[in-house]
Amino acid sequence: MKKLILTFIFIIISFISNAQVIKDVFKFSTFYGAINGGTSVADEDVYSVIDGLETFTYKTPYDYNLSLGVRKIARFGYENRAQTFYDGTEDSWSDGANIGKISGLEFLFEVDYKRQEGDNYIDQHHFIRYVNDKYILKGEYLQDGFADIKYFETSQRYRHKIGDKLSFNIGAVQRLSEPYGFDPLEEWILSTGDIHYTNLAIEEGYEIDVYNSEYKDPNGNVVATSVEVWEEVVVPQVLSNYVERKRNELEKKMQQSLVIGFDFYHYTKSFWLHSWGNVMPWHYNDKGQFSYHNYNNNEQWYDYSGGLIFGYKITKQLGTFVEGKYNKYWNREWYDFKFGINYIIF
User: Fold this and answer.
1) Which of 249, 269, 286 is the last residue of a domain?
2) To bridge 161 with a disulfide, which of 91, 167, 279, 312 should be the other Cys (CB 3.0-4.6 Å)?
3) Lowest pLDDT segment from 16-30, 69-83, 189-203, 294-308
């Protein structure tokens, strides 16, 4: 996967160096780095009466977000950035559109190291996009820790404009990712639908002494002294670690797909509508062991994404807005939305 990403970046850089001066490429771009933090959920007291009254306090460390990035993306008319500096908390949903406000080269490279409610994860979004009146070229890498989605995507599309506001596109998409749909626990499912977690744990190196109610991890540490703690606390972690390890052992999977999309943009100071959408109705089946077709009854499926940004100033004092984006790739969904009404009293 790294080789493919590096190859794509090398091609783009070669194109840039032959087409224009590097200085012009980074003109109007912004490099930024920021750290944001705050209090997480409050400490929680948990009580136990097994060996007399005992109190345990679960503390959650503070939340933080370390953001590093560089972006060169022209703002749409409705995107009036009020802040003087980029602080890493910006969420510009229009970045997901197929085309930008202007033609030519635009790019975004951003990585966020986050801790939220005690969970650590990484979010990344990188893309290079070149838009012409007749075609769109794009390379993108996305990692969303909350949605548990990570992939690298390239696309080549023919673009057909209808006026200055609407355009349609069609082309090919190549996506490189882990083989989504693969379930490492499937081989451990019994005919009753239950999972044989005892044998799985033993294979993973755990020691189980049911007569003395003692359960040890692969390092010999006692992790439970009752079947209740074993089944409710330890076993879920054993299954989670097993699934993650098995998934990480697999090679990345290339998916070739047909894509059809559209973009619409209209803006005035009192009314604006920006929408875009993509659908992948057909995917090449390479008959591989981990082809997603195997997890979908060897049938085709629809992957799609889209966004909507709408604003309307009904009067000088009253206005309403709706914004949202939605993505569904393989068996993963991630989305955001917001809507509301604003009324200026005076």
Assistant:
1) 249
2) 167
3) 16-30
